Amino acid sequence: MHSDKAKEFMLKVFNKSGISPTSTYLPAAIHPCISEEPRNGIPEAMAEARMVMCGAVSDLLEKTGTHPSEIDIVITNCSIFCPTPSLASMLVNHFKFGRDIQSYHLGGMGCGNGQEEGVCAVGLVRDLLQARPNAKALFVPAEITTYCYYPGTETKYLVANCIFRMGGAAILFSNRTDMRGRAKYQLLHSERVHTGADDAAYACMGWEPDSQGVNGVYLGKDVVVQAGKALTHCLTAVAPKILTWTQYSQAALNALQRSWLGPSTPKYTPDFTKTIVSHFAIHAGGYAVLKGIQKAMRLPASNMLPSFAALRDYGNTSCSTTWYVMAYQEACGGVGRGEVVMQIGMGGGMKAGVNLWRALRVNHCAHPAWRHLMDQPLTEADLPRSIDEERQQESASDTVGVAAAPARAAAMAAAAAAAGATQGAQLKASVAARATIEVYAVQDGVGA
């Protein structure tokens, strides 16, 4: 399918991606161990959507003891695959939701659909619940990788083949007072920034045909830079919500110094580990994305490990990555009552967003997505690529020139290492079990 040159390029990208060669998942239609030739048509994409989205919702309803008739609002997210009827309508049909249900599908926002859009969508959920008392809202983010598969040869489109993997989430929100005792989190604040007015930010990533007319997701060389700029604006806006009084005074002093001494005085950057935030759920878009955010926020490796763990075991699941990260935090160490989780994401456009969640109870559970770790947190030594800069440089010489592709990687070199993640006919059951995530949250109208 791909030329030797394209395979070599994709393998090189994969080896630097921070993704495990044996843990991530691809749908059967584009998996080199199952399909002779990749099939990325609408029927195959719908099959993946039903497996991931319906599977996640089924698990959520069962776990929370919620009957489909109790759902008042349903919102689905998928950036690229937007069929008619919509994916929201697919869920309405599958679960036989009521005729008065409000349904929405959000698309075209890239990885932001679930993080930034987990801000945008959560913001939408918040607004809808404020207008509809005593309601329950279902939020289902997923990116359908079958439809995103790129069979062409141009490098800027091939990168997506290397990092995007199968996954999805289902989250239940409610503003009902009788649900507060059962809820995991309360939404404190939701912040969103859109830098699409800038041409470079708008054009740094997207979905379009290549020079041969083959559709694919393209990632520009400056995508990390543009994401960083958007995130900087977002963090600046959210900072007043999370700073301590000591940090407020430091920021005020810095503002005075800059007014007296001029802009040559460095701007104040808070130590995010000393704010009210206890946990950081950061979009696992790729190794470079996570390293860029770590550098910008000056976070230690321990705060980054949950996101690198999600990248290792699930790859870039686009709009659902931060929900996998939150599930890891619950499964490996737990989130204590009253602790604040900062959910950070960005997506095409360029957009960035932050959600602040307060845990209403101790959340420590063996989540299905992380059951394979048996309640044992990963260490940095378990990662394919080190978070630590010095160790990263030491290991670089060991990875250069390594070309260990599975036997059938010729069908899709982007899945070279992912091919080892499956065991024949067990693929479908394994994916269905591990690609499902549930976070049960309450929304009570608090927040901007």
UniProtKB/TrEMBL annotation:
Family designation: Belongs to the thiolase-like superfamily. Chalcone/stilbene synthases family.
High-level lineage: Eukaryota, Viridiplantae, Chlorophyta, core chlorophytes, Chlorophyceae
Pfam families in the cross-refs: ACP_syn_III_C (PF08541), FAE1_CUT1_RppA (PF08392)
An annotated GO BP: fatty acid biosynthetic process
Pathway assignment: Lipid metabolism; fatty acid biosynthesis
Residue stretches making up the FAE domain: 4-258
PANTHER family found in the cross-reference section: 3-KETOACYL-COA SYNTHASE
GO MF annotations in UniProt: acyltransferase activity, transferring groups other than amino-acyl groups
GO cellular component: membrane
Transferase in keyword set: yes
Keywords: Acyltransferase, Transferase
Domain Beta-ketoacyl-[acyl-carrier-protein] synthase III C-terminal stretches: 275-358
Enzyme class: transferase
Record's protein name: 3-ketoacyl-CoA synthase
Enzyme Commission designation: 2.3.1.-
